[in-house]
Task: inverse folding
């Protein structure tokens, strides 16, 4: 399908608004939009969508779909990033979620560069689907008309739960880059706008009680910034800690299920009844504070020790900004 000709072809109906405000329906939003633009014979159908909305109905829907597919997994397809579909998804699905649910806002926009390429480095929290990433990608796209590609955890691409939840290839088609060093380096070499969390999976996995404490920054983004002479735009996000509040990470159990983290909170019994809520998060205001740009150094002077030191200096500066912003909110 020609995405450009069918721009805004997906009309946000009363049923979509219902799904937006009824948490088990978020998975329906994602899949219905995909099916508007892609042939998806293995995807969810209307009977199964309705089952999402009732307690424990997802399990019956999963069984029905599994039987419908001949007791097998959905067919894996080799799909590539499509910026036109990313734009359609951004305008038709992300826009109402970012504006009316997460109320995303960019602050200190004067620090945001005008042109690409760029590595956007953001603190990462929430212990949930990466909404802090998706909303920032939406806001940057709207502000600068950029095509933003986020570096995403491998589990977002290939974990069996994700393959059943979302269409195979969904993350890649939307621009996700696998969080592996070779894929990271290849993406940076193509001089794109890359959205990156230097804390890695440790960020969302740190849990509620360490929500404002940044984890160690991996130095790879500093080395790649120097190698390809690409500036880094640090962004501090507040509000992501409330995406899944009061959650703690049960690491050992998470490893059994092959999950990067396993959040346990008062919401988990509800998630058990409505597994389609896995892409949902609590309503919060996601506020982004753009910090001054960090320019690359001469790549000839870059080594692991130097890159690590500079990565931790950036972490300390962002940590300072987080604490100052929190104090400001407390006073107000």
Result:
């Amino acid at each position: 399908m020609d995405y450009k000709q069918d721009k805004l072809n997906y009309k946000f109906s009363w049923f979509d608004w219902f799904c937006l405000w009824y948490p088990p329906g978020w998975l329906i939003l994602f899949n219905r939009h995909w099916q508007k633009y892609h042939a998806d014979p293995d995807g969810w159908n209307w009977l199964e969508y309705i089952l999402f909305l009732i307690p424990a109905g997802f399990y019956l829907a999963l069984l029905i779909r599994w039987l419908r597919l001949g007791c097998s997994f959905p067919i894996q397809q080799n799909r590539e990033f499509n910026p036109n579909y990313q734009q359609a998804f951004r305008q038709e699905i992300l826009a109402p979620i970012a504006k009316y649910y997460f109320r995303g806002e960019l602050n200190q926009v004067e620090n945001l560069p005008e042109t690409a390429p760029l590595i956007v480095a953001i603190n990462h929290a929430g212990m949930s689907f990466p909404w802090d990433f998706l909303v920032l990608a939406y806001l940057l796209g709207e502000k600068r008309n950029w095509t933003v590609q986020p570096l995403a955890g491998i589990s977002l691409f290939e974990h069996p739960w994700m393959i059943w939840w979302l269409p195979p290839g969904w993350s890649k088609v939307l621009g996700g880059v696998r969080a592996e060093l070779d894929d990271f380096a290849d993406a940076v070499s193509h001089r794109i706008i890359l959205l990156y969390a230097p804390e890695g999976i440790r960020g969302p996995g740190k849990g509620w009680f360490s929500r404002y404490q940044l984890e160690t920054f991996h130095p790879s983004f500093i080395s790649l910034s120097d190698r390809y002479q690409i500036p880094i735009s640090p962004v501090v996000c507040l509000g992501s800690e409330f995406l899944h509040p009061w959650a703690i990470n049960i690491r050992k159990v998470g490893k059994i299920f092959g999950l990067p983290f396993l959040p346990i909170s008062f919401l988990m019994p509800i998630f058990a009844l409505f597994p389609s809520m896995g892409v949902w998060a609590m309503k919060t205001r996601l506020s982004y504070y753009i910090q001054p740009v960090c320019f690359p150094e001469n790549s000839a002077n870059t080594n692991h020790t130097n890159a690590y030191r500079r990565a931790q200096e950036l972490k300390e500066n962002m940590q300072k900004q987080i604490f100052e912003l929190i104090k400001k909110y407390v006073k107000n």
